[in-house]
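ARCHIVE CARD
CATEGORY: sequence design from structure
SOURCE FIELD: tokenized fold
FIELD CONTENT:
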């Protein structure tokens, strides 16, 4: 859960800097927007997950008590995947609203990790390694951020910025 949180935080910061992302969502100079408008939009995109995280952390206390740690983990993973799916689908039509909605929904899932994971670890780990396990969760956040940065760096080096494939993997299926 920690690595997922870090990955989510690291990817949005680097994805928003990709030229293809900026072009699709009108965040480049060619869009005709002022620097202040572009900065405000980028701030909203990157901050939307934090707003969702606040809600997620607050509801996580209730959910872990009512449905248990395992089911809370399952539903937070579902919310995270749903949010990321909405975010990635925004590339097909350039919908900034889908980006905001996807980031917020993913944030609700990711925000729950700060409550569910340490609680789960504290309850299941043996007393002698309990603190170490919770510290490993925190370390996994930084591992996820590092993986996200290197993944974005690699896609920036090896994938053309003329396509959204820098930050979205495109799948085309044929029925024939």
């Amino acid at each position: 859960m920690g690595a997922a949180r870090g990955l989510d935080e690291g990817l949005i910061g680097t994805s928003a800097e990709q030229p293809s992302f900026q072009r699709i969502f009108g965040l480049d100079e060619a869009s005709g927007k002022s620097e202040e408008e572009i900065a405000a939009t980028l701030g909203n995109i990157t901050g939307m997950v934090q707003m969702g995280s606040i809600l997620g952390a607050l509801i996580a206390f209730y959910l872990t008590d009512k449905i248990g740690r395992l089911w809370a983990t399952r539903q937070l993973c579902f919310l995270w995947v749903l949010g990321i799916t909405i975010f990635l689908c925004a590339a097909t039509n350039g919908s900034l609203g889908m980006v905001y909605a996807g980031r917020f929904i993913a944030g609700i899932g990711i925000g729950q990790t700060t409550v569910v994971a340490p609680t789960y670890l504290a309850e299941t780990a043996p007393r002698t390694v309990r603190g170490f396990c919770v510290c490993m969760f925190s370390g996994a956040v930084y591992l996820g951020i590092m993986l996200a940065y290197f993944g974005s760096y690699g896609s920036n080096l090896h994938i053309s910025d003329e396509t959204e494939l820098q930050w979205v993997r495109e799948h085309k299926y044929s029925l024939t």
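CARD ANNOTATION: The chain has a mean pLDDT of 85. The first helix runs from residue 2 to 15.
SHELF: design records, drawer C
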